[in-house]
Amino acid sequence: MRIGMLISALPAGGAERVAVEVACALDRSRFAPFFVLTREGGPLEEPLREAGIPYTILGRRGRWIPIRTMIRAHRLLRDADIIHAHLFSSSMYGALLARTTGVPLVTRDPTWDGRRTLVRTWGYRWWISPRARYIVCPSDLVARSIEEEGVPRRKLRVIVNGVPTGTALTRREARAELGLSADEWVIGIIATLRVEKAHEVLLRAFARLLREGRVPTLCIVGDGPQKTFLHDVAEELGLDGRVVWAGHRRDARRLARAFDTAVICSSWEGLPLAALEILAAGTPLVATRVGVLPRILDRGVGLLVDVDDDAGLARALARLMDEPARAAEQSVRGLRAVEDDYSFDRMIKEFTALYDEVLDPQQGARGDVRSTRRAS
Fold first, then answer.
1. Do 178 and 219 share a domain, yes or no?
2. Are 64 and 108 found together in one domain?
3. H or E segment at 83?
4. Whole-number Å distance between alpha carbons of 6 and 70
5. Could you list the residue range(s) of the whole structural domain that residue 120 is in?
6. What is the mean pLDDT of the chain?
């Protein structure tokens, strides 16, 4: 069955990675995924090429897709068995294309920033929901936010993010790849340099640690639109020579063991893949109280701090520096939490079952699935 993944671009963000990883992990004897990128490609093109998954870049430049481009998208998706749109903007286009092609629509909203807007409310209530078979959410928190927009609960399906374990490089290998010495104490963050990731809070916390006489190294893995701003902040704080700007890494999740402690200091999140991958690597985590991170870390898996609290973040990092036994205990609990609740295989099975249900509600996940649209 042909699964048409509709998304604007393929940067190294969490939502895009889930789309690519799900497509690559589907049983190819049953499913034939392909991608339609409305805007541009990106670093995640490479795993698609390696997996032999076709993709087409439509190249829209403005906010709206020109009519010619929409016609091309229609032609690409009209023979699909499911259109699976990722993120809100692509879900809006997906709802239109589902109407013009008659193909069943599944959408996925990976996060919510806590702000309700007229566009979001109108989009979900009156445009996406009437056409979508299901809107997939990574957590109950995101599902509730969409339900509050007026979407019927029966349209919502929670499929929690999952990550594989055993994929991380060893500490030695990861440090060598990042150019870090074996004996320095490293604080690390893996995140696209976007506003909501709030890297400047970590830079301020790191400056506090240096002023206290501590000598850690900060390693920032990722690239993005905030790069110039963050370099300026680091210069103003006098952090030259103490920050390793590692830039974009294709498979950054392999690098988490390079850190003695990892940080997520975002101002908002849903269920970030980076958090799960850090825990799966057995690396202690300090994170802000956003999204479902408190639910994950409250069980002694990591330390929580308030949003935009660089002083609290510095205290939490200092605590882990001073209490290696606590850090080691968190590492064990984190890995166990991922294995129990956030496995990659479980996520793929749930997406497969969802596709089966959409393609043939009578047979569900029994495996012998045909497209009722084609059969008619």
1. yes
2. yes
3. strand 82-86
4. 12
5. 2-162+343-375
6. 90
